[in-house]
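Structure, all two chains, one model.
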Amino acid sequence: MSVTISPKRVRGDFVRHVRDISGENINLCYQCGLCSGNCPSVCKMDVSPRRIIELARLGLQEEIAESQTVWVCASCLACAVNCPRGFDLSRVMEAIRLLTLRKNLDRVRPEDVSQQERCDLPQIAMVSGFRKFTG
Amino acid sequence: MSLAYYPGCTLKTKARNLEEPAVASLQALGLELEEMSRWNCCGAAYSLADDDLIHQVAPVRNLVRVQELGKNRLVTLCAVCLNTLKRANLVMRDDGEKRNAVNSFMNEEPDYGGEVEVVHLLEVLRDDIGWQTLAERIKRPLRDMRLAPYYGCTLLRPRDVAIDSEQSPTILRKFIEALGAIPVDFPEFARCCGSYQVMSDPDGISEYARVILSSASSHGAEALVLTCPLCDYDLGRGQSELLKSDKDFRSMPLFYFTQLMALALGLGPEICHFELNHGDPESLLREKKLLS
């Protein structure tokens, strides 16, 4: 993937929003990759967790939007507890999800959940799923 | 002695096999779980956004209800409820600005400052009853059962709400030993089951189950011990899919820790509601002569 980096994007709204919503200092990351190494969902991701941090701090919003990674993250915090810099990547994933969901762009539409699934799924799955996939 | 108890939504429906054996077991051990007279959903997924205080209101209201009962300790059985309530509690205790905002929003409620201690039933067994006492009360030891302790995510992460060491927890191992069974350690004890991803990618959930269950099986476990209804659903569903698609996959029973405790304490199997478990948990119990 080739990307164009510019001071304008690095200092742009996207980086500021991610920082403000996550409460995390994304510049702490030194790209060691322990987050990707410990992630149980990494094999389902098209862009690794380590790379998401790099794209986020460079303000590369479009490249992140093209990836499925933040929607595959299960917020299990395996990245957070193994980060040598004390950085919580799960909060950055949440911030990026929210930047989409807050535009009323739901990832899972409640009306698309079949009657069968509604009967089968426990409340804990539906409540947490709708919390993470709807705005 | 009675303990304020928060059940959460799923324990009243799909996970009665987690709740009912717990209540009966605690009674047998001389403790009463006193269900809160009013409670609401905890929100099920703790909000990871710094600017999202509205999702702290639901768990905090439950903690206010605990104080109204004159209690300062709350027991949960569901690992996800524990995590959500405990993390919201820390926000109210440690972050003055957020505490003021939430209290101001809930202006009809008394101010709350994080005074309630939120604990999991396993901590009550470890700290209030003790493994030795539990072992002495066992009437039907789970002899020869090789059980793998599976913690999942929310009992151990993040560290500030963990009930045990994140890297090398022993609480479930000691619980299994107290019941007279053989604990089987395996490296995937805290690997995520896929959690809420079952909502967006139901077919993908079986890959999480494959890694966890194959690892437990290859280390010699006959069954997995669980604490969370979402882990139970994801692993159970994943296992069912794998049995259809992979002829080499070996399934194993999934038990809630409370079911095994009730059985070992000599309570009737009907209280365990094995009919709500995925697959066939009773064959293994009959094989071990724990069920007739």
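DSSP finds ten helices and no strands in chain A.
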